[in-house]
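are you around this afternoon, could really use another pair of eyes. what follows is a protein written twice so to speak, once as letters and once as structure tokens for the fold. i want to understand how the tokens follow from the sequence so walk me through it. anything you notice is useful, everything is just below.
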Amino acid sequence: MSNILFVTSEVFPLIKTGGLADVAASLPRALMKLKHNVRILLPGYASVMKAAAGDVKKVAVLDVDGESVTLWRTFLPGTRVLVWLVDAPGFSEREGNPYCGPDGFDWPDNAQRFLLFAKVARLVALNQAGLDWPVDVVHCNDWQTGMVPALLAQDSVRPATVFTIHNLAYRGLFSWDTFASLGLPHDLWHMERLEFYGQFSFMKGGLVYADRITTVSPSYAQEIQTPEAGNGLDGLLRYRQSALSGILNGIDADEWNPGTDKHIAQMYTRRTLNHKLKNKMALQERNGLAVSEQPLLGFIGRLVDQKGIDLILDNLSQLLTEGCQCIILGSGMKDYEQQLLQLAQQYPQQLSVTIGYNESLAHQIEAGADIFLMPSAYEPCGLNQLYSLRYGTLPVVHAVGGLRDSVIDFAEPSQTDATGFMFYQYTAHGLYTAIQRALTVFQDKKIWRMLQNNGMGKDLSWHQSARKYEQLYSELLITSSPHPSS
């Protein structure tokens, strides 16, 4: 049994901008079921402090380089997972998105904010924050926490460190002037440390200094060691490949369960899969689509190039005129948003577009759609294809990263283990061909039901993945320094 400090910049339902929040909510719970002690360290953003108000307890006041920081204790809603909130003005006195302002640009002091967060994490990790909780493993996530392993590496006696890459495209890049203003040791400005082509990278802090590096699928762990997907860090990752592994994310099987889901019109299981049609009809009716048995395609995600929204747009008019319906939920690039909204006006009974994010609607799309589109250019893991499998909604995916690792392509009529449809050439035609294969199979209810049952029968929970993290922690603790006691 280990004491694990899970350091993250977001966790559902307190704060969420993407899949990291879902992982940060689910993995600690799965590890606690394996009898580990896990505590989450999270910035105390204004929205988080409001959400936790009335259920917080002040546990420490720290002086961090002359700045007063308050630590509050709360619990992840509906769980036994303890969360420490880092209450500093840069977080708690700022409304809105945790990383960028209302103009869409990054907050200009992100380096200062997340370095402060890392310094607090170091104090907690070294048991120097007055919490009386010795830490065995510090598990950091994405660039916002990358400086934690870098700071801890300066200490001769420290916990073991793990750094998980959720998306290598976001490297936490800042200028030399910003680096110089932070008061970090000058020797960190070096190509083998934090310097990155004339800038410095928080992400490199994790990649260079963490004892072990993980990412969120085996295929993505291989892809990021190539120039095509390495975002300039592939050489470093190849150098550290012996410390790098890929562990596929799981899902919260309680939150995403069609048999108990209160967001959807009609709960169902593999045995009552016919009830899925009621969810389709309710989804169509609520979103202004013609209530019919036409194939209904779903998409939930950021409207950005990574998610393949350009390929969807290239095919959408043709698919709608050929008798498909589509429902889209997401936000992102304004040009994509406008194109989708214009198409929705042109095809009001065939296409529904909701800009933004709505948790209930996300569940309803997973339950009501026939086919889920996930044509990502790259996808470290992806969660929506896993939700889709769980809900008997067959995914059409680009064969990359976690999509390749979690979906089995229906390649031939005699295949009995398939769970979805893949395309291998990242083109609009490649996506269209895969959708057409899915639509052909959709007409054969017996085979379609078999594929649905295959997906719904998979164990997509965090249990197996948590066991792999547990093994990784155990290997680290055999070789690491003892944790500090004071």
In short: The two ends are 20 Å apart (CA to CA).
